[in-house]
């Protein structure tokens, strides 16, 4: 059984790794689109959107209600991509923690 110093060292290393990954996630940028690419959104890892671009043809083709639905679709797609990318970055730390618990 590992002694207390070894356990504390493991916890410290994992904490540092989590902080490093968190900084990496916050710095990443995710781009997503609506189904037919009428709307493109870009968001940062901290969840803030940095741009929402609407194709001018969509503005001529759809009414306000449809445009809002298309924007919402692109935003939700972006949030989903961000969640997946964040989970992928944190997966090694989570697996490592599980192996320590076992």
Automatic annotation (TrEMBL):
SUPFAM superfamilies on file: YbaB-like (SSF82607)
Gene Ontology MF terms in the entry: DNA binding
Ranges in coiled-coil conformation: 4-31
A Pfam family: YbaB_DNA_bd
Keyword terms of this UniProt record: Coiled coil, DNA-binding
Signal peptide from the UniProt entry: none
Identification of the protein by name: Nucleoid-associated protein, YbaB/EbfC family
């Amino acid at each position: 059984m590992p002694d207390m110093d070894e356990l504390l060292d493991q916890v410290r290393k994992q904490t540092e790794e989590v902080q490093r990954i968190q900084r990496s996630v916050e710095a990443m940028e995710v781009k997503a689109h609506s189904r037919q690419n009428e709307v493109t959104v870009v968001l940062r890892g901290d969840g803030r959107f940095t741009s929402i671009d609407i194709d001018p043809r969509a503005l001529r083709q759809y009414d306000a209600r449809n445009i809002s639905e298309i924007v919402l679709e692109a935003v939700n797609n972006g949030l989903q991509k961000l969640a997946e990318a964040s989970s992928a970055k944190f997966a090694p730390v989570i697996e490592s923690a599980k192996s320590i618990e076992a």
